[in-house]
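FIELD: query
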Amino acid sequence: MTLRLASIIRKEFIQILRDPRTLIMTLIMPIMQLFLLGYAATTDIKNIPIAVWDQSRSPQSRALLDAFRSANYFTIEYEVGSQQDIRTLIEDGKIRAALIIPPDYSQQLIENDAQVLVILDGSDATSGSTALSASQLIGQAYATKIMTEDASRLGRGSAVAPPVQFLTQVWYNPDLVSAYFMIPAVIGIILYVISTMLTATTIVRERERGTIEQLIVTPIRSWELVVGKILPYVVLAFLDTFEVLILGHYWFGVPVRGSLALILETSGLLLLSSLGIGLFASTVANTQQEAMLTVWMTLLPSIFLSGFFFPLEAMPPFLQAFAYIIPLRYYLIVIRALLIKGVGASSIQGEIIALAVFGIIIMGIASLRFRKRLD
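FIELD: result
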């Protein structure tokens, strides 16, 4: 190793150590990716929340419900009294499936002709497919158990036909097409990622070029500078949203069942958060590289813990709890419900309020810090 080469290497290490923020973020990001991929990247869904409409209320129906409980795939969260109750719970996102047991279930079981209806929420193709497979497996195992018990009790061969048949209905997405689940989420990712990154870099770029000082000495007010810098990217983000909506609907066949006005309004609430994060990143970074690293520190957990790639139900409880502070999580619930289920604002009012609160807080903090930085 020549002295010249050693000098260059030493100089580069000194340069790295002079920028501790970038160094820390560079070292933390691999750890963050490791934990996110290790814990969040899973499709092993268990404890799917379901509702039960038990019209039989018999020992036989309770035995069937016990079979569903013991499988650990489902958690019985609600007992309802009508199919409309089931529809309301699914539209509100509180359950992923429902079990309907007919009133004459016990008599049907004696006649080896019992039928149980399983209703699945097809708006989440991953959870829906898991629930469909799990219900079929539980049904087969339960039917086989009954056939074996009958054969042992009567001292003869088991019946050819199973005593219980599990009929399934998949709502909103009967074929469980994955595009119905992914395309709406792409809208959220575009709004969140592009607006955050562009907002962060455009303001830092002014600082790198030295033009930010020229803007400061002009009569323009700080809030006018903020609005003027971010408004073009709001327009671009909405244009991208329309592109994905149009292509998703006419090319991939994704339905648009909800109100277009409500879609735009909730998208605007998400933009408050994403633009606020980008604006805040621009106040803590001195270079575009620092701004990008700062943004990615927030984007990685947002993408993985929002339910974009992997269902939240499959994640450990501590990650599910952490996901409650991620605005993108609420938007994905909203946009999927609006496009696929066609619900109204009342069914997603909790998520809308959360988006508004996060947007106002994040944008408010970022604007105050940006104004202080200019002063």
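FIELD: remark
Strands lie at 48-54, 74-79, 97-101, 114-121, 164-171.
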